[in-house]
Amino acid sequence: MELTDDTLRDLHRRMVRIRLFEEAAGRLAEANKLPGFLHLYVGEEAVAAGVCVALTDEDQITSTHRGHGHLVAKGGDFNRMMAELMAKSTGYCKGKGGSMHISDLELGMLGANGIVGAGTPIAVGAGFANKYRDNGKVAAAFFGDGATNIGAFHEAANMACALKLPVVFVCENNEYGEFTPRHKTMAITDIVDRAVGYGMPSVMVDGMDAVAVYEAAVEAVARARAGAGPSLIEAKTYRYYNHHGVQNLGLKYRPDAEVERWKERDAINGIQARMAEAGVMTPDQAEAVWAEIRADIDAAIKFADESPTPDPSMLLVDVYSQNVEAL
Amino acid sequence: MATVGIIANPAAGKDIRRLVSSASPTSDMAKMGIIRRAVIGAAESGVERILLANDRHALGARAVADLQIDAELVVLDDIVIDTGHDSRVAAERCWKEGAGAVVVLGGDGTHRDVAKGWLDLPLVAVSTGTNNVFPRLVEATIAGRAAGLVATGAAPIDQVSMPAKVAHVRIQDGATGAIVDDGDDLALVDVALVEGRFAGSRAVWDPARLRDIVACIAEPDAVGLSSIVAAVHLVGRDEPGGMHVRIGNGRTVRAPIAPGLFVNIGIASAVLLADGDEIELIGPGMLAFDGERDRALSEGQRATVSIRRDGPRVINIAAAMRWGRNPVWQPFNVLKDE
Amino acid sequence: MTATEVEVRQLPYVMAFNEAVRQCMREDENIFCAGEDIGAFGGVFGTFGGLQKEFGERRVVDTPISEQAIVGLGVGAAVMGLRPIVDLMFMDFMCVAMDQIVNQAAKLKYMFGGTARIPLTITCGGGAGLSAAAQHSQSLEALLCHIPGLKVVVPSSPYDMKGLMVSCIREDNPTVMVKHKRMLGVSGPVPEELYAIPLGVANIVRPGTDVTVVAYGRMVSEAMLAAEQLAEEGVECEIVDPRTLQPLDSATIVASARKTNRVVVVHEAVRFGGIGAEIAAQIQEEAFDYLDAPVGRIGAPFSPVPFSPVLEAIYIPNAARIADGIRATFGRPARSV
C-alpha cells in the first residue's frame, strides 16, 4: 500500500478542518450562540480522518453524539453544519436536528446519534443494503468505548458477523464514558478483546496517529469490500475538551497531567512534523492550509449568523414522508 | 532479598497483523493468566519478592488480585503512558530494585523495549506477541519457576544463561556525518530498511517495500522478516555474527513474513557478518526494528548496524530447572532390559 | 349472496399476510424480509411460510434473536433505499427494540430535516387468547401510537390484512403491522389480485343508527356478535373499524358519533391509557353536544395477561362485555354473568 503525498495532505486537511470547526463551535457555545448540547471531537481527529480517507465518498458511516468530526471527515459542508448548530433553517437538518443529529445522506453520513451505540445496528443495515445490491460499498460504524457496554453494539457486531456483511466497526476508545473512566465500567481494557467473541478480526491502533488509523482502515475496508466480512478497529484516543462543551464544569474527573500527556501526542502536530521532515509539506504550506480553513470557518459562521431561523410553519413538516401530518 | 520482576506488554498480540495476516489475538485475560502462573511459579522457587510492572491495563495487579502467596507482591508505581516506553521504564526499575531475574511477556518488540531499559538483564522470555523469534512459547508456570531459581541463586546465572546478540544502530546525518542517535536504537532479531516515511501501524507486511534486512538471528523456524534471511543462510542465536541481505532482483526465496503470510521475495545480495562488523543502511526510508517500523531515515541519513553479544542474559528454562530438583528426591535406579 | 361474492376465494388471515408479502416481493426487488425463524422455518406462526423457497436466502433472511439489531438492520437498509420487512415474532419483543423503533426509525426523517425516507415495515404478533401469558400476549399499540413518525396497523379480517399489509410495504414511513395471533387461522374472502387499502381510512363494518362501536383487530368480530345481540333488543349498532390507529381516521369516528349520539370504544389492550382514551377524548372535543351518554370504554383490566385459561377468558373483552357496555350507554342493566 502506497502512502502518497496526496493521501497525507488529505489526512492533514481533514484533521485541521475538524479541529478548526470544533474550536469555533466551542467558542460559539461559550458565547451562548449555540442552543442545546455540544460534544466536541477535538483530540480525536486522527480517527475520523484516518477512516474516512480510507473510504470512498460512496461508502457510508454512522456516527455518535460526538459526530461533527465524522461529518467533516466525510466531506461535510461547513456552512450547513454551522447553520445547523445555530438552529437555522439553512442547516443540514433545517434546524430540527442540531449537533447530535447532524447528517448528510448524500455523503453517506447516516447521522450523528444521541443514543449511545444506536448507530451500530444502523450501520449493519446499511452494510446489508450494500451486500443486497452487491454494490461493493462498505458501511463503517463509529462508536465509543462506552458504546461497547450497550446491547445494541453486541447485537450489531454479532449480526454483522453472522450475515458476513461489509461493515467496519471503529471504536474510538477515549477512556471515558461521559465522566466515568473506562476501568470503572468494564473489566477489560482493550475493546479488541471483545471482537474474538463475535468471530471477527480486530486491530488496536494509535488513535493519535492518522497514518496508523488509515493503514488499519484500508485493510479493514478492503476486507469488507472483498466480502470477507466485518472487522473491528480500536483507536486509542482522547478528547481534549469536556464530555460536552468546552469548560470542565469545575468537575475534576481526570487529572490535568493526563490531559497534557495526550496533548503532547497531538495527532495534527504529529503529522505536520512528520510531513515537514519528509518534505511533503513545509510549515508555511501547513500554515496556509490552516489559514484557508479558518477563512472557510469565518465564512460559515457569517452564513449561519445571517441565515433565518426556521419558520414556525415548519414545525409539523417532515414528521412523515409525503407530508402526512399526525393529528 | 531474592526478587523476580514480571513485565507484560498489554499491547502485544493486538496489532494490524490480525488483519493483514492470520495472526491470532492475545487477550488481556490470556495475559493475566500467564502473569498469575509465572508469579505462582516464582514463589514456588522460594522467591521473597515479586515486582509487577505497572501498565495502563493494570494487568499485573489484576492478575494477582486475590492470590494467596508467601512472596511479597509489589506493583511498581511508575507512571505509564501505554507505549513501549513503559516496558523500558519497568526494566530500569527492576534493575534498581535488584531483581535477580525478570520474566517478560510479549513479542520481539516488547523484549527489545525491555533491553533498552536494562541491556543485559537476566531474562526469561515468554511469547505473547505475534512474530515470536526472540521469546519462545513456554508455559508460564515453569518460566516463573526458572526465573525464581535464578533469583534465589539456586541456579547459577552463568551456567544457565547466555547473553543474546543485539543489533545496535547508530544514526548519522548524511551531509555532516554528525551523530543523530547513538546506541539507543537496537534490535534483538533484525533491523530492516523499508520504503516509506511513516511508522503508521508499525508492522511490515508488504514485501515490495523492503530494501535491507540485517539479522542477528536467522533460524529455520522463524516467522517474520528474519525468515527471509533464514531462507538464504542460517545464523543461530548461539552462533556469532549475523547476516545482511539486500532485497532486489536476484534469486527468489519464499518466506513467512507474518503468521500465515508467505511471500516471494528477490534477494539481490547477501553478506555474512562477524560480531562488530558495521553495515550502513542509507535513507530515505523507515527503519524497522524486529519487524516494526519505528523511525524515519531522511534522504542521505545513514544507520550503522553492528551486532554484538552484549544483550539480555537469556535463561535456558530447562537448564535452570535442573537446579530446582527437590533435595529429598532420590534418583530412581533406572533399570535397563538386558 | 351475490355472484361476485361467490367467486371471491376464501383465505386464512395468516395466508392473506403471506400473499401480500409474496406479491409485493414479486413486483419490487427492493423488498426483503428479515427476522427470527422466518426463512427455512417459515415464521413461528407460518406467516412467512414458503417465502424463502421462492425468493431465496438473500431476500428472506434468518437473523439472530436480536430485536434491536433486527430493527436496526431495517432502519439502515431503509435509509439506503431498500424496503425492509422485519419481523419481531411477538409484539412483546418490540420492547427489546424500543430504541431502534422509537428513537431511530420514527425520528430519523424529522431530525435529519426531512432528508431520510424510512420505508420500513415491522411485523409482529399481538393479542391474547393462547395461554401465552404475560410476555407473549400483550396489545401494546398505544405505546406506538404515542410516537410521532410511526404508523400502526391493526387488521381485523383476512381481506383487510392483505390490503393493509400491501400499503405498509409500499409506505415510505415506518409502520408496525400487528397480526392478531388468534386470528391467524380465521378465513375470509380475499381477492387473488394485489390490492391496497389506504392507511388512515376507517371501515364501517356494520352500519347502524343507534350507537357507534369503535373496535379494531380481533375485537371487531366480538363487537359484531354483540351487535347481533343488541339488534334483538332493538338497538342497531354501527361498528367502525379504524384499521389503522396511527394515523387515526377521526373524521369517520366523529361523524358516526354525531349520527348515533352514543359511542363505545373497544380494545383488547389494557383500558387505562389505551387508545380508547384518545378516541373518547377526541369525540368529546368534536361531538360533545351530540352525545346522549358518556363515551364507554371496554378494555382489559389493569393487570398483566394471565396464563390460566380461566383467568385469561375473564381478562379478554368479549361480546357479552361489549354488549353490556353498549347497554350501559342506554342506561340498561348488564346481562352477562
What percentage of the residues of chain A does DSSP assign to strands (E)? 5-15%
Please give the largest β-sheet of chain B: 7 strands, mixed
Instruction: Using a beta-carbon cutoff below 8 angstroms, give the protein chain pair with the largest interface and the number of residues from each chain.
Output: A-C, 50 and 51 residues
Order of helices and strands of chain B: EHHEHEHEHEHHEEEEEHEEEEEEEH
N→C terminal distance of chain B: 51 Å
Biggest sheet strand line-up of chain B? 3-2-1-4-5-17-6
For the residues shown, what is the average pLDDT of chain A?
93
Average pLDDT over all residues of chain B: 91
CATH homologous superfamily (4th level) name of chain A: Thiamin diphosphate (ThDP)-binding fold, Pyr/PP domains
Number of helices of chain B: 9
What would your notes on this structure say?
The complex is a heterotrimer of chains A (327), B (338) and C (337). The model of chain A is unreliable at 323-327 (pLDDT under 50). In chain A, the strands form 2 sheets. In chain A, strands 1-2-3-7-6 form a 5-stranded parallel β-sheet, with helices on both faces. A two-stranded antiparallel ribbon of chain A has the order 4-5. Chain A has helices spanning 5-30, 45-54, 68-73, 78-85, 119-133, 151-162, 182-185, 192-195, 210-225, 256-264, 267-277, 283-306; strands spanning 60-62, 139-144, 167-173, 176-177, 180-181, 202-206, 231-236. Chain A has one domain (5-323): Rossmann fold (3-Layer(aba) Sandwich), CATH 3.40.50.970. Chain A has 327 residues and is of the alpha/beta class. Chain B folds into 2 domains: 3-164 and 312-324, 3-Layer(aba) Sandwich (Rossmann fold); 166-308, Tumour Suppressor Smad4 (Sandwich). Chain B contains 9 helices and 17 strands. The radius of gyration of chain B is 21 Å and the shape is globular. Chain C is of the alpha/beta class and 337 residues long. Chain C has 2 domains: 9-189, Thiamin diphosphate (ThDP)-binding fold, Pyr/PP domains (Rossmann fold); 203-329, 3-Layer(aba) Sandwich (Rossmann fold), CATH 3.40.50. In chain C, 38% of the residues lie in helices and 20% in strands. In chain C, the strands form 3 sheets. In chain C, strands 3-2-4-5-7-6-12 form a 7-stranded mixed β-sheet, sandwiched between helices. Chain C is globular. In chain C, 57% of the residues are buried. The interface between A and C is large, with 50 and 51 residues.
